[in-house]
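Before our next group meeting I need something from you. Please put the record directly below this note.
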Amino acid sequence: MNLRLIGIGAGVLIILSLPLAGAIAGPDFAGQDDGKGGGLFSTLGLSDSSSPSRSSRTSPEPPAPSAAPAGPERPGPVEQPRTDSRCGPELSSPHGVEAQTCVLEGEGRTWGRSYYRNTSGRALDAVLTVMGPARRTVQIRCTVGAGDEPGLCETPKEDSVGAPDSYSAVAEFAVPDDEGQLLLRSGSNSPTPSDG
């Protein structure tokens, strides 16, 4: 016989016997009657799944992935609160400014928002004002960049008072210099421009 073949065979036997020896030397299997309920077969993953397991030695296995979860069903995605809006028409000026201004209401609060696009080639100032009942007014100043990317200017949210239609918003876009040339005024209740 070839000594090399005998050496390889002996090496394979040693390698295969190591997990078995480790499993036998590992846990104490005293009190296991036939090995099917735990002990060596369970350690090697060879136990019969139909045989009962001893509760004092093992914890219950987790449910299979396809099993329905115990207890109440998991909730779905959180529902976003409803926001109502009243918007004026989209307006544009010959100076390269487009805007639409809205009054928004949700969760008992009211605020103003103006969507805009500035193609004038220069930075502008925008002043957005929300007017409500009892002469309540909220105003914010926004810097409108010189790019033509769409943007928005928005006032802080205030607690609603009175009917929703008692609020209005106006946005004014102007050149930020001493003269403050007004380029566009856009309101939430602006009249729709006529075609004729």
In short: The chain is about 15% helix and 30% strand. The two ends are 109 Å apart (CA to CA).
